[in-house]
């Protein structure tokens, strides 16, 4: 081979490579792929590309509660304020928190918003008619507490054998059944036979002016706490600030009772309890001393338990 032909070889190889590249480009992006089985070369189409990475699936949006602002201020509805929980709203309106959640289609009871308007009465209840007894029942709360902490403490030993004390309630309860109807006629408690929830001394009374919503009954850790009347447990837990370990019993459409600061809870929600049944043990949860804080609420509004409980 002559020297001049050797000099032309690189040029020929370059021209051939250029022709091959141009052929690939003009084929619409189809790269040659060798089919080893048949010994031939074929072209397979390249998947189209959008020029951007695939977008990941968008996660489901969290449940947003309905605010129901159109019902604000109407009877039977409540507007959520800072610090509210569903359990506290239910307590303040004499309802089971599970019912309030159902009436408002709330799937997550921990998700309520400030400004949200909640229905706090059953859908088939006339809120205006229900509100009327609460106003007339205010006479119970405006009367002063007659029994002071000292006199109650002194009276306890002398009345230890009466029906108003815990031991008699656990027994026949005959005297209690005679005292309760008179209380029912005086305060309109729908003939509920009330019982003192603990046997200890009364250390603090109901005081509406100081926002004291119930009675404080003394004792020692572990003392029995009993249901003040027949009913159903609608709350048993520690989710309400200021109450510690709390039991709430609903007695009928009008009344419920609350038992706070317990050491141990012995009942569960939806459990039926009977008058005098032990439901907790006294303690000092969320309190600076061992005591039972006891409330009676009429349509959710605290009233003076001393006006309904039998005399000790």
CATH superfamily annotation of the largest domain: Glucose Permease (Domain IIA)
Taken in chain order, the helices and strands follow as: HEEEHHEHHHHHEEEEEEEEEE
How many domains, as an integer? 2
CATH fold-level topology of the largest domain: Glucose Permease (Domain IIA)
CATH class of the largest domain: Mainly Beta
Helix share, percent: 25-40%
Number of helices: 8
Overall outline: globular
The second-level CATH architecture of the largest domain is: Distorted Sandwich
Distance between the terminal alpha carbons, to the nearest Å?
132 Å
Q: Which class of secondary structure composition applies to the elements?
A: alpha+beta
Radius of gyration of CA atoms, rounded to a whole number: 38 Å
Biggest sheet details: 10 strands, antiparallel
Average pLDDT: 73
Strand content: 15-25%
Give the tally of β-strands: 14
Characterize the structure shown.
26% of the residues lie in helices and 21% in strands. It is α+β, with helices and mostly antiparallel strands and 312 residues long. Strands 5, 6, 7, 8, 9, 10, 11, 12, 13 and 14 form a ten-stranded antiparallel sheet that branches. Strands 1-2 form a two-stranded antiparallel sheet. Strand 1 and strand 2 (40-43) form a beta hairpin. It is globular and about 60 Å long.
């Amino acid at each position: 081979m002559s020297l001049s032909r050797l000099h032309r070889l690189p040029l020929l190889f370059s021209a051939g490579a250029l022709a091959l590249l141009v052929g690939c480009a003009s084929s619409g992006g189809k790269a040659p792929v060798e089919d080893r089985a048949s010994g031939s070369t074929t072209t397979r189409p390249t998947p189209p590309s959008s020029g951007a990475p695939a977008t990941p699936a968008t996660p489901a949006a969290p449940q947003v509660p309905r605010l129901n602002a159109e019902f604000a201020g109407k009877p039977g509805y409540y507007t959520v304020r800072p610090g509210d929980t569903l359990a506290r709203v239910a307590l303040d309106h004499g309802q089971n928190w599970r019912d309030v959640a159902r009436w408002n289609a709330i799937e997550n009871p921990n998700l309520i918003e400030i400004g949200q308007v909640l229905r706090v009465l059953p859908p088939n209840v006339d809120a205006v008619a229900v509100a009327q007894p609460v106003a007339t029942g205010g006479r119970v709360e405006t009367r002063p507490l007659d029994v002071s902490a000292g006199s109650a403490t002194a009276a306890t030993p002398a009345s230890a054998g009466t029906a108003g004390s815990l031991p008699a309630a656990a027994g026949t309860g005959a005297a209690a059944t005679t005292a309760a109807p008179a209380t029912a006629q005086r305060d309109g408690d729908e003939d509920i036979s009330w019982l003192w929830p603990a046997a200890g001394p009364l250390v603090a009374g109901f005081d509406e002016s100081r926002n004291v919503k119930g009675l404080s009954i003394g004792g020692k850790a572990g003392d029995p706490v009993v249901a003040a009347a027949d009913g159903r447990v609608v709350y048993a837990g520690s989710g309400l600030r200021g109450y510690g370990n709390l039991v709430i019993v609903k007695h009928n459409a009008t009344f419920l009772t609350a038992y706070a600061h317990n050491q141990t809870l012995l009942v569960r929600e939806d459990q039926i309890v009977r008058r005098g049944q032990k439901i907790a043990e006294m303690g000092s949860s969320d309190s600076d001393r061992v005591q039972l804080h006891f409330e009676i609420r009429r349509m959710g509004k605290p009233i003076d338990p001393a006006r309904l409980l039998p005399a000790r």
